[in-house]
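Operator note (shift B, R.M.): manual run for Glycogen synthase requested after the automated queue skipped it. Running by hand, logging everything below so the morning shift can see what happened. Input copied straight from the record, untouched. If output looks odd, do not overwrite the archive copy; leave it for review.
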Amino acid sequence: MSESRKILMVSSEAVPYAKTGGLADMVSALALHLRESGDDVRIVIPRYYSIDKSKLEKINGPLGVPTGTDEKWTAVYKDMLKGKVPIYFIDYDQLYGRAGIYGPSGSESFEDNAERFNLLSRASFQLCRMLGWYPDVMHCHDWSAGLIPIYLNTTEFAGDFSQTASVFTIHNIGYQGVFPAEETIHTGLVETAAMLHKDNMNFLKCAIDQSHVITTVSPTYAKEIQTEQYGEGLEHLLDYRKYDLYGILNGVDYNDWNPETDPFIAPDNYSKEDMANKKKLKALLQEEAGLEVTDKKPLIGIVSRLADQKGFRELCEPFYGCLASLCRYIDLQFVILGTGEKWCEEELSRLNSTLPNLHAWTEFDNRKAHLIEAGSDFFLMPSRYEPCGLNQLYSLKYGTLPIVRMTGGLADTVENYNQQTGNGTGFTFYDLTPEAIYNVVGWAVWAWYNKKDHIEKMRQKAMSRDFSWNEPVKEYRKVYDIAMTKRRS
Ligand code: ADP
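Run finished. Output pasted below as returned.
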């Protein structure tokens, strides 16, 4: 294989343009690191309403995109991600010109999402034609780019894309892109069987069925999704394709997430050699959250989508969750930043007004996310499942010990505390119950009060762990080569 590959990333999100979760971080960071390794990598995403087109360059067009029902005339805009990676925006107001990426809120979806994201797939091919640039690999991320592999195997099998392989990454199997079977009409394909699952159109199932290579974002999650407990109904298909399935842990972009250089916490940056400013940031966080400003109590942070997946039922469902008990019976403080399911936002707002040692912001705020990573003592992630999880990786780098349930990427990255030796980088537990969360948080707080030397030792170890993109990029390049060999044979 040649040393430089042409890779087109197709995604519904990419930082800093559009983000609801870790997918956006991963797509941009992987692209930038592939570029550094010498690959010609480009990204394509929709031009949502929130992306200001006056800041982008309009490129020659319009772009005609055939769909199953008509031909749509889209505009194309371009920017250079961090001045290094071309990113193209498919602009089609009727489908993308509204607030929200998948729906008007975190818990609602747009009714025409099948049409919206079919357009993204088909426009990606037309974009390449317009550029006269044909990728070796189309790297498709999550269900919203999930129809590309079937197009490569059907309409695009011969001709311009005959040498183009598909790599599909599952970032979260809980979101599959399921629509009534009639929605296959948008594709114009007659071969609908691969698109269907349990009588519905299913983008994710189609991608797993049709891709040359499938990846997911941690080795443990790759195994978990082959089981009934985690496979969300696709476990048999994944088991069938297990020899084409690779678990590659996401890296962290330490240009953005590093306490030594993080502009969001400047001028109070800190390092593992000099942690003094971490205390200042804790005080700042307490002040902004309206909590008592003190270093005599441990502060526990959460930054998360407010979703069942993240363990929020066990944390704060009325009459069930343990958050109120944790705040009432353990001498600690909590800050929570998150948006998502409405019941959860409402419950957190209610707890906010009744518990003086808790503050919850129900908003999306990148600066606060950085401040919570830096200013907290612990970072809690009681996830039901966690494909990779980025926040625990950020926490490790910021010396904010993660408290995590042993699943997916959390199990691959956090080493449990050993009370005898003081070894470990965090606190882990298995059962997803309010009692188990209560106990593990209690254990961490106990160590914070009684084993200060262990906490310091763990912080040092956590901050020394390297979860940069160096290794994952090498693995993705290998996977691209495997996919290209498959396509070309
Ligand atoms: P997921 O992709 O499942 O949501 P990850 O841990 O992989 O979870 O990534 C979540 C990303 O989104 C992190 O970068 C996190 O800091 C960010 N994030 C989540 N909620 C918020 C919020 N309310 N404000 C700012 N950043 C947030």
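Quick read of the result: The mean pLDDT is 96. The chain has 17 helices and 18 strands.
Leaving this for review. - R.M.
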